[in-house]
Amino acid sequence: MLARSAVLVHHARLNLHLKSHIEDVFSKPVLHRVLHLLSAKTAEHDVLEALMAAAALIASARGAIEEVDKRFLTDKLEHIELFKHVELEEALKLFMRDVNNIQTDSQAGTKAALSRIGALASEPQLAYVVMGVAHGIADLHSDHSADVEAQLLKIAETLNLPAEIEVLAEQIAPGKSGSADK
Questions:
Q1: How far apart are CA 58 and CA 65, in angstroms?
Q2: Helix (H, G, I), strand (E, B) or coil at 142
Q3: Residues 6+ apart with CB under 8 A from 21
Q4: What is the SS3 assignment for 86?
């Protein structure tokens, strides 16, 4: 009888503790993390949004969007394991949405795109992928205008990464970047 009473007291205390901290459990940052843990599709969508935002910033800085930009993105998505189930048309819609937002209102569109990119700043491996795609789309055309370089720098700063491709390569694979001075 005494043991059962102790168990009931323990459960009552636990229940009161839970009730008093329920707001903490459902606060936005905690809830956001829990949802990401529960839903791989949500996390996948955040990465896709960041990739398309970075590509849109670079492509918009160059001017008119070309078919080669879209082809590059679909080729990359087909080769990244995380995106094997992504509808390529959906990805291109996200890309064009960001391009249109940037071209319609440069300041607001850029801020929104950088916000989507910033969602991955605490995930270094994913940040490297985003930065790699940004450099890849920038390198599709031989000219790196000052606008393209400025956007690469903004993306890098948002992700807390260096903007220079050589420095990125060294961070990703130390000693294997292939620079001439090694």
A1: 10
A2: coil
A3: none
A4: coil
Top pLDDT among 137 and 158 is at 158
Which pTM was predicted? 0.72
% of the chain residues with pLDDT over 70: 70
Element (H, E) at 45: helix 40-62
Which residue, 48, 24, 44, is CA-closest to 36?
A: 44
Q: Position of tokens 């080669």?
A: 68
* Average pLDDT of the segment spanning 141-146: 77
Segment of 6-15, 83-92, 96-105 carrying the highest mean pLDDT:
96-105
d(CA 112, CA 96): 14
pLDDT of residue 38: 40
d(CA 50, CA 42): 12
Angle between helices 146-159 and 106-118 (to 10 degrees): 40
For 60, the 3-state DSSP assignment is: helix
Mean pLDDT along residues 74-91: 81
C-alpha distances (whole Å) from 74 to each of 51, 67, 80, 139 are 11, 11, 10, 16
Q: How far, CA to CA in Å, does 93 sit from each of 52, 96, 121, 160, 173?
A: 9, 5, 23, 27, 33
For residue 175, is it left (φ>0), alpha (ψ between -120 and 50) or beta?
Answer: left
In this prediction, residues 97-106 reach a mean pLDDT of 96
What token pair was written down for 87? 């509808």
